[in-house]
Design brief:
Length: 416
């Protein structure tokens, strides 16, 4: 029996069977016609109870299998994804005047970003379809994550990245064995090229939004927040936004847990973009359902997206969740990197710290009440982009002589 009941077009609501279609609604096209994956929620509610979850010893995101689109569990690759730590941080909560603040560190995933939640699912779907070649366009993390899983699965992997993708992400890709194509253009150019190539040569396409299964993996972050906070849903969740796929998936996750009765309310999700790449913020403020393309300019490479591919779902989700999209400057992102590192011991790449920058901005503008709680999702590890992260550091290593007297002089204020 198939677990997924239907794939439903987000715009025209036409329904398809998963055997019929892999990507987007033919009538509405790739941007408006992204598909929603729906299940038999009566069955899910019976299988996914609080008791069942409490006694489940699988501490990975596969603990949510009853509501994941996996038909053949044999294809699941043995890399531990999800169940990332969610740390309470009273120092930062106090500084910002919040009741409670948690930092969920998704840099702890196998390839060090949130994207592992999606790639782990995409590889299973590719194997279920007997694909031999899988492709993706990516700012870097989705690709390096995909390549980690295909290294195990034995799929050939062809990756399209912008020419200036950070070195660590390229290094991951090369060592995991992907064929890496650095496109002389932006991420948006790489995306279009990848889709044309996938269609022309029949490669399985793991590019964001057009593949409906990626969001299914990404929604598991929401499930974990519910469980890890002992079913006390926070008032806010803050997350960085590029294409909008993580954003809309988190909302789907909270909505599903609400629908099956595991939680009694849903949080407001705040999607945070960099000022230099904020088409969703602009569309949200203007009350539009579609964004205008922008030229990007931010050091947060992972969210340097001018044409968000999951924009229709993301803009629908933001209105349903009662949250909003906001923009922060690169300076605010640098400050957030430093705050997370200095107060939580979590080193985030620029996009990984962008959610924190959003929370800081809203708290400083008194938009959050002292009795409210927030979770900040750190979506990528700082070692992914060390040049970017170094820009957040205000101090420097001190060059010393190999001489104890010199150490004494330099550390004068620390020696009593
Ligand atoms: C570290 C990091 N944070 C946030 C995002 C944004 O995710 P989305 O493009 O789904 O909005 C990305 C996407 O590449 C990312 O790599
Ligand atoms: Zn449609």
């Amino acid at each position: 029996m198939n677990k997924i009941t239907i794939l439903k077009c987000i715009s025209c609501t036409k329904e398809f069977s998963p055997q019929e279609l892999d990507y987007t609604c033919p009538d509405c096209g790739p941007m408006r016609g992204t598909l929603e994956v729906l299940y038999d929620y009566d069955r899910v509610a019976k299988e996914l109870t609080r008791d069942a979850l409490t006694s489940n010893r699988d501490f990975s995101h596969w603990r949510y299998l009853p509501v994941l689109p996996i038909e053949n569990e044999r294809f699941i690759q043995p890399l531990a994804v999800g169940w990332t730590p969610t740390y309470e941080n009273s120092t930062m909560a106090e500084k910002l005047g919040l009741k409670n603040l948690w930092v969920k560190d998704d840099g702890r995933n196998p390839s060090a970003s949130y994207k592992d939640r999606a790639s782990s699912v995409a590889v299973v779907k590719a194997l279920e379809k007997s694909a031999l070649i899988i492709t993706a366009a990516s700012t870097g993390n989705a690709a390096s994550s995909l390549a980690a899983f295909t290294a195990l699965a034995g799929l050939k992997t062809i990756i399209f990245v912008p020419h200036d993708a950070p070195k660590a992400k390229l290094t991951q890709l090369l060592l995991f064995g992907a064929k890496v194509l650095r496109v002389n253009g932006t991420y948006d150019d790489a995306f279009d090229l990848c889709c044309v190539a996938a269609e022309k040569w029949g490669w399985y396409n793991r590019s964001t939004a057009i593949n409906p299964y990626l969001g299914e993996g990404k929604k598991t972050g929401a499930f974990e927040i519910c469980e890890q906070l002992n079913w006390q849903v926070p008032d806010y969740v803050f997350v960085a936004v590029g294409d909008g796929c993580i954003y809309q998936s988190l909302w789907k996750g909270f909505k599903e847990f609400h629908q099956i009765g595991l939680i009694d309310r849903t949080p407001k999700i705040i999607g945070v973009q960099a000022e230099g790449a904020a088409p969703l913020v602009q569309a949200f403020i203007a009350g539009k359902e579609i964004t205008e393309p922008v030229e990007t300019n931010t050091f947060a490479d992972s969210i340097a997206v001018g044409v968000p591919r999951d924009q229709v779902k993301a803009l629908k989700a933001v209105r349903e969740s009662g949250g909003k999209f906001i923009a922060v400057s690169d300076a605010e992102i640098k400050n957030a990197i430093s705050e997370l590192a200095g107060n939580a011991g979590v080193l985030a790449e620029p996009a990984g710290a962008t959610g924190m920058a959003g929370l800081t901005k809203m708290a400083n503008n008194s938009e959050i009440k002292s009795y409210e709680t927030a979770v900040v999702l750190v979506t990528g590890n700082g070692l992914k982009d060390i040049d970017g992260v170094m820009k957040a550091s205000t101090s420097q290593a001190v060059l010393v002589k190999n001489d104890i007297e010199n150490i004494g002089e330099i550390c004068r204020d620390l020696i009593h």
